Amino acid sequence: MQAEYHKRQGHTVYWDNAMEADKTIIEPEPIDFLKLPAPDRVFTHASAIRYQHNGNFKYHSATYIQVADGYWYGRCSFCVEKKREWKVRPVLAVHEELKQIHDLGFKEVFDDSGTFPMGHWLEEFLDMENPGVVMGCNMRMIDAPYRRMKKWGFRMLLFGLESANQRTLDRIHKGVIAADVRYIEEASKAGLDCHGAVMFGYPWETEEDAKHTLRVLHDLLKRGVLKTAQASFFQPHPGFQANEAHRKYVGKIYDVALSPRFWFNKIMAIRNEADFRYLVRQIKEGLKRK
Hints:
Blueprint: H1 2-8, E1 62-65, E2 68-69, E3 87-88, H2 91-103, E4 108-111, H3 119-127, E5 134-139, H4 146-152, E6 154-162, H5 166-171, H6 182-189, E7 193-200, H7 207-222, E8 228-233, H8 248-252, H9 260-268, H10 273-289
Parallel strand pairs: 1-4, 4-5, 5-6, 6-7, 7-8
Antiparallel strand pairs: 2-3
């Protein structure tokens, strides 16, 4: 988006080639998000194979959009968007970009905003006709019109569980309770592919706390509530050092592959060739990370 902004300002912009450039931008610049145009996906080679190796996508070619900047909740202590002003693009502008994406031949789109806008914005968005793309986005564990989202064309929702322990959720100011995992179950029942993200290594968590999060994650995967999952490790920041003894649990999420129930639900979910190919990619990725 910023590359296209500079092009429209009259600058000569190179993509992936700084040989002739007098300025190389590797971090976002402080430009008003709402002044940024949609990116030129031909100029940036968005359909190139190197941009397609991503677990967020089942259908190819695929690409990203960004509907909003900041985060409407924005109080999680670890969030890079904490306290940043929440700015949301107009529904019509987003819809126009999705039409352009479809016309370029892309089949799937993932919105990489901190979380997809809710409330009246989402209702207005769902009232507009899908131009012909499959959609995915980041999501909080909240009540949302999951069935309408599925009917519109959403496929994958990425939920940040972070931890199954209420003490940790409170300490990182997540603003949810552990029982809110029920909203992931609602999304799954609506036919959406749910992806869960957790974190290990919180300095205050005990061994049992880490095991509890792992058990909850494995249970959701075995029951097919979560189709996929990921784990990250706590990044140290002033006043807090990671619990290195819990680093081992990051890789242990893949131990769910030892469960027959997990594979039964995976196999039963196969409906077409795209589902089969997606499962094969997941297996390969899991083997690499394990």
